[in-house]
Amino acid sequence: MEILTQTDSLLVLQHKPVSFWEQGKKLAMIGVMVSLLPLLAIVFGENTGIKLSCERFIESKINCTLNRFYLTRMETLKISELQAAKVIEKKYKGMNYQVKIIASNGEYLLFKPTLDKQQHQQIAKNINEFITSNQKTLLIKQQDDLQDIAGSIVPFFIIGFIFIALGFYAITLPTVYCTFDKNLNKVAIERKSITNHKIITYPLRSIIEVGIQPFGTKSRLVLTLISQQKILIDKFYSSSKDNVEYLVDKIKYFLAID
Q1: Per-residue pLDDT at 151 exceeds 90
Q2: Whose CA, among 18, 106, 131, 257, lies 20 to 30 Å from 43?
Q3: Is the confidence at residue 79, as pLDDT, over 80?
Q4: Neighbour-count burial of 69, counting CB atoms closer than 10 A to its CB (0-12 exposed, 13-18 middle, 19+ buried)
Q5: Does domain 2-16+176-255 match CATH 2.30.29?
Q6: Domain-by-domain residue ranges, the chain?
Q7: Can you state the angle between helices 18-44 and 146-171, rounded to 10 degrees?
Q8: What mean pLDDT do residues 97-121 have?
Q9: DSSP strand E in the chain: where?
Q10: CA-to-CA distance for 98 and 113, rounded, in angstroms?
Q11: C-alpha 147: how far from its chain's center?
Q12: What's the predicted TM-score (pTM) here?
């Protein structure tokens, strides 16, 4: 808090919580990044579903189409002459079983790796049975991961919201003006922020004491009224005890209080 104006009839103090505003901006930015980065990763990277469609043209020839779905696009791969399917171990986000299919034009991974080895073994078994069975002409295997993905990003949204809320609180902390006016015979405490504007006034003659309220190594200004009510000029404590004592002396001198 600093003295903004000082005359024989007017004393104005001001406090701008600039450090809180700066920290609030940083917290809000962190919150936005935490919330958006997983979503951006999904939009531009992680697939939300996979569909494998295989069709038998002749007994020994099976061609497939592998569709990978994303939020904003779809990727299609042509698989020629499907030969076999097997389960492999692959470390991925702590989950390590996945189905791999083998074809004449390469090897392809199906679905996302999980801890459920039996599930992948069943998928591989169904594909291999289709390959060896001449009676089956069509095979479709698909997996929708959108619900699982949504569940995985919810914690990021919650954490991001907490950071944004804390940042918004800090950004909206008010600038405080305390005006002692002898001409109007009143003291006005004004708190002005981007979301609120409030002014409280008291008669100058009702102030009987100007003191310091300590809290550990910090302190803040407090006015005591004739009713024994304690009025805080600024709700935040200052780490500069000398500054608070200096302001107390200035206010006492202005009000002619011993």
Answers
A1: no
A2: 106
A3: yes
A4: middle
A5: yes
A6: 2-16+176-255, 18-48+145-173, 49-138
A7: 170
A8: 87
A9: 2-6, 10-15, 49-58, 61-69, 74-79, 82-92, 95-103, 106-114, 138-144, 175-181, 186-192, 197-203, 207-215, 218-225, 230-232
A10: 5
A11: 21
A12: 0.64
